[in-house]
């Protein structure tokens, strides 16, 4: 069933709204996936704040026009699932994990920071630590000098108390 012009315009407008905050986008061929598999994929994508949509390539091309994602146009052939997200690593991990689980999901390519990337680059991107892990590492690195200073300052009174306890024990004996 084909969409009417007004419905097509709504789809394009909605896609453009999703692309405003996105830093990366990926397309993959989904031919042969069951409805249950696609539902699992979409549910996982929603948990990770990844927008996933199956849309006609012509409508997707219209939505991508005038954005940094225009370089994706040559990839838009055949039945594709389109996804966009603010976190490129979460997007890459989602697709590579599900491509391993479901043989029929084949990553075609994507866009990262306005440059087209292939499936191998998406796989490499998925191996990077997530944003939360990187923030935790940064916080740990920033807190290391402070915690070292606190331990050092705490050692002086502790050593004094241990010395007094040793003197007390020595006099008691």
Structural class estimated from helices and strands: alpha+beta
Strand order of the largest sheet: 2-3-1-4-5
Query: CATH H-level name of the largest domain... which superfamily?
Result: Ribosomal protein L10, N-terminal RNA-binding domain
Number of strands: 5
> How are helices and strands ordered from N to C?
HEHEHEHEEHH
Oligomer state of the chains in this structure: single chain
| Low-pLDDT regions | none
Cα radius of gyration in angstroms: 26 Å
Overall residue-averaged pLDDT value: 86
What is the share of helical residues? 55-70%
Distance between the termini: 97 Å
Sheet-strand content, in percent, reads 15-25%
How many domains? The number is 2
- Count helical runs: 6
Protein name: Large ribosomal subunit protein uL10
GO molecular function: large ribosomal subunit rRNA binding; structural constituent of ribosome
Pfam family, one: Ribosomal_L10
Family: Belongs to the universal ribosomal protein uL10 family.
